[in-house]
Here is the input.
Amino acid sequence: MSRYLLGRAAQSALAVFGVMAIVFVVMRLSGDPTLLLVPEGATREQIDALRHQLGFDRPIPIQFADYLWTLTRLDLGESVVQRLPVWRIVGERIPYTAWLAGTALALSIGLGIPVGIATAVWRGTLVERALMPLVLVGQSMPTFWSGILLIMLFGVTLGWLPTSGADDWRSVLMPAVALGGLSMATFARITRTAVIEELGKDYVRAIRAKGVSWKVVILRHVLRNGAIPIVTIAALEVANLLAGAVIVETVFAWPGMGQLAVQSIQSRDFLVVQAIVLLVSVSYVLLNFAADLIYGIIDPRIKLRGGTR
Amino acid sequence: MQRRKLLAMIAAIAMSIGAAAAQPAKDTLSVDLPGQPATLDPHIQWDTDSYHVYRNIFDNLVTRDAAGKIVPQVASAWTYRSPTEIEFTIRTDIKFHDGSALTPADVVYSVKRITDPAFKSPQLSQFDTIKEARLVGPDKVLLVTEKPYPVLLAQLVKLSIVSKAHVEKVGAEKFNLEPMGSGPYKFASWQRGVRVTLEANDSYWRGKPSIRTVTFQNVSDEATRIANLKSGRADIIRAVSPDQAQALKSESRLKLLPAATERIGYLFINAQWGPTADIRVRRAIAHAIDRKLIVEALYAGFGTPVDVVLTPANFGYITGIPSYPFDPAKARALIKEAGAEGAELPFTTSPAYDSRLVQALQQMLGDVGLKVTIQLTDHPTFLKRRQGNPNEAGSISTGLWSCGCQDADGVINPLFRTGSTWAKYSNPKFDALIDAARATIDEAERLKHYGDALRILYEDVPGVGMFQYHAIYAARREIQWQPTAGESFAVFDMKWQP
Here is the structure.
């Protein structure tokens, strides 16, 4: 068990390091931030002077080593554009993103799994025909469009919800629905497939023959056996929610990490972009790690072991 | 009985509507900007969104009036002791928000702070001609420049005066997060990423601001800004595109506030590389561009066609400079004469520029027989190429240039002077003229030099001026305000219609 954990932890660290190295190099290869920071009319000497002061004239490996060295001291550096510690700039956005992604995840699981079960159990009936369009809409509407439609309907025409911002629970509803739509559809589809597959198995017929009610069969047996793919998808969906947040946060003026990432890329605020990528990749790796652990709890046959299989 | 109840209800509703209409006039203002301020320390960033917020918290050494003339603000008067020395008389009745008096020492400190290379201000290049700032009397400050620098006053329009004692006491980071100045509005709070709130400064030396509370929201999506305006969440929004502005015209509760800015939309033409090294090809390009069509079709009329690479809002703009009228037949003839039919012109551009304009120009030049290939890269890569050697810069590219100083020196100098990062052109006669215009503070003489310089640019065509850019705000109908060419957002000048 501990050997397995150690192995996974080393793999995870390697993955995070790889992501960091790629982002670091790509951000720098794609252009020199000094050119974006100086006024348009700056002379070559003024540009060179600022570049030197900011350390962007050093070779990339040296800049990267320097960055890693500051990281080992748990320091994310200082933003060149905003002149503030990066941990602070990113840190103040985390609660907003957690709030939005959490609500969207709750919505997509809370709706997606019941819809998946219902469309599997009542396959071919009116229930399925009524629910499938919901899944289809969630899956096929791009968020930048559904977001604007929601704003126009509930914000402008009906005036029920604030059109943007992050003031209270009413502000989070529309972005969470826009963001969670795709995940909801994914949960519904995966759950439906898993349940249908389990329903066709012999053990279901056996326990039904014992006289166990459908309710108990579905909730206690089928769902538990079908849970592995759902847990896998859940871990992946969190990553999708964080990525989707970039668009949704822009549309709804939600002050989370997605909006910060876009604005920092535009202003070439390197260290902030790197910190966001670091944070997102670490949380992605951790979630997959957590999913692995959960497999073992759901299905004790899966042994957590390292080494050869 | 039933009917009487109904009538009473209707009456009550009618009265409540009447009461709502008679409620006291609004005294708050909610502003939607496309970004959050990068910094509120006025000596660091000067992007449009930061500037929109902090220019309300601080006073500047001098300012511009509605007509664009440089007028006193913190300095009540100034005289040139010599072409390199200006003496400013500082007002003695200005107080910072903490109650302390604004002194000439604060002015000296502000100049020294922004020009200190160690402070690394991105605005440094606008002020680094200032060699020295010192007190020369109880209310007098002397600024000394290395050489005569006629644009200094225009640059000082952007110099915010900060309190030496306060900045030194709280430190740079806290000052950036909780700025304190002497302007018409006091900083109240900054919910970072969401909004900045300012409160009226009732002891402001120019009078009590009419609007009591201002909030600046960070709303990057244009459709969302418009939804906020329509739903009443925002009272005024910045950066409305011409298309959306056209659509907003039918909204009776809203109005558009366009301002002709000092931004010049121009086409750069590489005079030192490729087919455009031939002057006939450059002239043909100038003849092939239909400026009027561009302004009407792409910008819905929100733009002013111009003939030179300079806007009427800049000092040095002169009417009567000859220009190349739209004449495709003549363009074709010139291209034929140059033997450049079907010549390939790389058109470098980035997402920072209007892609519709790029495509329209590609079409217009294609119509006269040039083969234009658009080379789209990210903005830093574009800048690297455009500011690199002539053979890297491509044949043409569009630009939207603003120096923030409303002076020809900040436009045609960096764009076309030999050795500048942007210039792919060299003409010693042109260089001599703009150098002479920079070396004197005599306005009539400067105008004459710029007139001659613009005539040379007409002859050589290292670039083509296309239109003066209009910045568009949209606002509630009851807001009274006229935006200015300098894109400064003075809430002090705004009022709600009673």
